[in-house]
Amino acid sequence: MKNTRRPSPVHNSEPLRLQKYLADAGLGSRREIERWISEGRVRVNGDVARLGDRVSDADRIRIDGQEVRAKRHHLGEHQTIAYHKPEGELVTRRDPEERPTVFRRLPRPKQGRWIAVGRLDINTSGLILFTTDGELANRLMHPSRELEREYAARILGEVSPEALRLLGEGIALEDGPARFESIRDAGGSGANHWYHVTLREGRNREVRRLWEAAGCTVSRLIRVRYGNVELGRRLAPGQWRPLGEDELAGLRALAGLRASPLGKRAPRAAAGGAKRPARRQASSGSPWKR
Predict the structure, then answer these.
(1) 208 dihedral zone (left: phi>0; alpha: psi -120 to 50; beta)
(2) HEC readout, 242-285
(3) 62, 76, 126, 202: which one has the fewest Cβ atoms less than 10 Å from its Cβ?
(4) Whole-structure pTM over 0.85, yes or no?
(5) Residue 162 is part of which domain span?
(6) What is the DSSP letter of 101?
(7) Do 116 and 25 share a domain, yes or no?
């Protein structure tokens, strides 16, 4: 079908595909924006947008009837932070039941908006990354990248050698087979025992479902690493911190992106909330023991 869109009078930037342009402006991940376009929620210069349309800074863009002042950011203008999500928070912008969400604690970004890199369910705590760089978020979440995630799982009761074997070799779940890349005993005492597990995909509640399929009960679950970024002991629940230069460079390399220009070195202390260490576990096993 021929594109009959009226061209904008002046182009002050090289045109890009619409979904990439909006992602670069920090309005969402490319996959999220592609869904908006497919649903007819995006208009460019008054016309309903289509996947594959190209735009520049001079085009007038509306999402859900609201004009957006999208402007592509330079690499150095993007922000990426690590957040320690507590149990009980939802990874969503709005909840119909008005339950607490992760976005209430985050700082206001300098430009664009925060994009969550993946999800953690309401009962899972730990590391979640937020960025204003839509292209970075899209690549980190794409299944082809197979970024390694590490979780500390507290299991109620004894885990049999057969269960550990199944978890390492693979178990059939309702959405396909799955397995842990690695399983490491992290200690514990009494009825609970900690294990550190890694996997390279982010299916919904996959860690919990794997343990449950092996006949085990997860009493607590914490994500302690995403790619090269670690949660660490100093970031308490509800706190956030900017990524350091080396962390960000490593993360971009894992995403297949070039390094961003050198900027100010990230502060050592955790930002966002009281500067206090995370609480240690009551059991002798530590979910952060490496």
Answers:
(1) alpha
(2) ECCHHHHHHHHHHCCCCCCCCCCCCCCCCECCCCCCCCCCCCCC
(3) 76
(4) no
(5) 77-254
(6) B
(7) no
Q: Which of 53, 59, 95, 121 is catalytic?
A: 121
pLDDT at 16: 84
- 135 and 55: one domain? no
Residue 121 bears catalytic tag: yes
Q: 57 phi and psi, to 5 degrees? A: -60, -25
Q: What is the pLDDT of residue 196?
A: 97
**In this structure, is residue 267 part of a structural domain?**
no
Q: Are 127 and 234 in contact (CB under 8 A)?
A: no
Residue 229 lies in a domain: yes
Judgement on whether residues 30 and 173 belong to the same structural domain of the protein: no
Domain assignment present for residue 236? The answer is yes
Are residues 194 and 86 part of one domain? yes
Note whether 271 and 234 are within 8 A (CB).
no
Mean pLDDT score of the chain? 83
pLDDT, one tens digit per residue, over 79-88 is 999 999 999 9
